[in-house]
Amino acid sequence: MVSLAIGCIASTAALAAAFVFLGGGKLRRRPLPPGPRPLPLIGNVFDIPRSNAWERFIEWKDLYGEVVYISILGRSIVLLNSVKSTTDLLEKRAPSYSDRPQFPLIKVGHQWNFGFKPYGREWQSLRRTFTSQYNSMATLRSFYDAHRASATTFLLNVLHKPEELSNHMRIRGAQVIFEVTYGISVQSWDDTLVQTAEAVMDVVSIALYPSMWIINPISILNSFPRWLGGGIVAARVRRWQADLENLRNAPFEVVKKSLATGTAKPCFTANLLQELETSSENNMNEGIIRDTAAIALGAAYETTFAAGEVFLLAMLLNEPVQGSAQREIDSVVGSDRLPDFIDRERLPFVTAVMKEVLRWHPPAPTGIPHELTHDDMYEGMFLPAGSIVMANIWGLLHDPTMYPDPFTFDPSRFIRDGKLDCTKNDPSRFVFGFGRRACPGRLFTEDSLWLMIAQFLAVYSISPPSNGGPPPKAAFTSGAISRPLPFKHVVRPRSQAAQNLLTQLAQGQ
């Protein structure tokens, strides 16, 4: 079996080489973008780093230019490392750059996920359903109470167990998205639905990492005999598939049952199911509603949690910034209530902190790649059809020409004349994707993150431990979804007035 697996790999490499040498002759005649020199047969397999790929891609920009070409087993990959190239291709030429590659590990069970579906009518229908609930101002305002409830739970959880800050942030992210999507209240990290969502998104983060875009380790490892781990791999794949189906179906069935008994809360799923029953001119069906709800849950849960942890680490490492935001809150809101959405326009520095959190370390540093559907030419460089095209989001957000001193956490870069001004450097333009594949949940995510930041800073301060240990540093996981590595901290109410406010909050529950 081992020899069979090796033979399969060799055959795949030989076929890829034959394509490039024989069928891919036109690629050789037209100038491809520059990039690291590939090895025979396998291409640039060993050039993709195991960690922090986004940093290596920026190094390649310095060596080869803003558009970099690599290949893996004959598959072309185009890396975009500038705002100009990303805008020119993924936005201005969106019709040719809006498809998705077929990621080997995603094919295991994500065929229903419109985020990974090919560009076309089915994708457009699913996205339209999603956008109808997560991108209109009226609907976004209807979610405010869910944001407030999750923020309140977070603040009180921190008060009772400040040492479990990371788990509290996880619960906050899960609570708000389960509430607005399914009307389900989750209170504990041990909740089965939360555990399932966490397991699914951990695997997705691996599946979308650059080294997994083409190579399918499952196919190889499944060829191994049981004593070399083949059976373990098969069992894990079955578990992942089961988790995916549970995430897709279990909360949806809860909503259907609650509608039948008249106990359903207003939420994404209940609203659309009721609309399906009452409207005679409706292109939706239960499958569309179920699948778009599951997508909302998975995407929002992980990005909300990751961005929240980045905020906490940024405040830990930048206490002067923390103090500036707190002084703004004190001067505008006072100390007898928590900041709310009505205060947003009068708290520009707090909003700038939120924007800088997204810029300093975006939740998905390399984003989700696009696929080019037609041969294209760009600034004299040939881009072959079928290429995987990736915008290095982290690289764009650390471009010193747009963000001077990019490794410094500096919200003031978004403040001009005392007002918030992101007209030329809004990081959300890049963080949430590009062109027709841009995430429609951007405003929802920003609302959730802003309220958590404003209310946390109103009542808490976070600082490094004073026990003389090594100082904390900015270090992050390396998956497609990246968040801070565990860090030590001290969190405490920032004043007696803050303590009183937290006490009142607890009594009101």
UniProtKB/TrEMBL annotation:
Question: Iron: present as a keyword of the record?
Answer: yes
Q: Which domain of life is it from?
A: Eukaryota
- Is Metal-binding included in the keywords of this UniProt record? yes
Please give the pathway this protein is involved in. Secondary metabolite biosynthesis
Name the residues that bind heme. 439
Q: Which UniProt keywords apply?
A: Heme, Iron, Metal-binding, Monooxygenase, Oxidoreductase
Q: Which cofactor does it need?
A: heme
Query: What one GO molecular function would you report for this record?
Result: oxidoreductase activity, acting on paired donors, with incorporation or reduction of molecular oxygen
Q: Which family does it belong to?
A: Belongs to the cytochrome P450 family.
This protein's name:
Cytochrome P450
Which organism is this entry from? Mycena albidolilacea
